[in-house]
Amino acid sequence: MRGSLAGLLLVYSAISLPATGYIMQEISYCGYGDEEGNITFQYAITFNHLVALGYSSKENMFLPNQFMLDKMWPVVRDFAIEFNSKPDMLNYVKSEERRCKDQIKTFWNDTAQRSVKPSMEVFSPEQFYGENLPLLICHVWGFYPQDIVVVWIKNEKALVKNVTEAVRVGDWTYQVVAKLDLRDSLPQDTYTCVVRHESLDTPMMKSWRAGLTFVQIITISVSAAIFTLGLVSLVIGVICWRGARRRGYTPIPGYNETS
């Protein structure tokens, strides 16, 4: 019967409308309406994005759209009467409504209502996206839902929030990057990034204190190794030279042993 309705609407549109094409749609909507968990189900047949007739759960019947074009209104009205008088369409829509109510809570809990705990890291990069200022970064990622609070604490005193808006990662999780200017920091200062999220029973936090960066540690370690190697070589050379002198060996100036 839905196919018959589409055919008749097409005939009337060919008579009354310019030859610009048409769109027929069968639309079902299943919504988890409010905090009390009320479920909203809607079913409609549209013609060129205009609802031709729809199902009313409250009245348990199909209702035609009174604002259809004059030449299409009789067709829509007659099919609404036919759908309401025969059980096939009503049974079909009622089964869709039952399926909506049976499945939506499971889908809602597994998607929109799920909660994923964040991960976090605090670090001071050598350079951050072209910025040369000394920065401290608090990277928080892998959390859901989006709402999150990130606060910087300096020496047990809360600072003004400096948080970029959480952005989608693409796997149904979010991330946020909080930056802090370190130009006024002192070596003894301690910074703590505190994260509050509905998935956490207690706030998550990590602390950071000014010190050598990873690159600086590597540079100093390599320099120290080279210096130690040079010092060992010098000591060995001095020991060998002193031993040779004790054995009475004296190099002859200008003497070439191979000549």
UniProtKB/TrEMBL annotation:
Residues 118-199 form the Ig-like domain. One of its GO terms (biological process) is adaptive immune response. InterPro entries: Ig-like_dom, Ig-like_dom_sf, Ig-like_fold, Ig/MHC_CS, Ig_C1-set, MHC/Immunoglobulin, MHC_II_a/b_N. It is a single-pass type I membrane protein. Keywords: Adaptive immunity, Immunity, Membrane, MHC II, Signal, Transmembrane, Transmembrane helix. One of its GO terms (cellular component) is MHC class II protein complex. The keyword Transmembrane helix applies. It is found in: Membrane. Residues 1-21 form the signal peptide. Its main location: membrane. SUPFAM superfamilies: Immunoglobulin (SSF48726). It holds the Pfam family C1-set. The chain crosses the membrane at residues 214-241. This is Ig-like domain-containing protein.
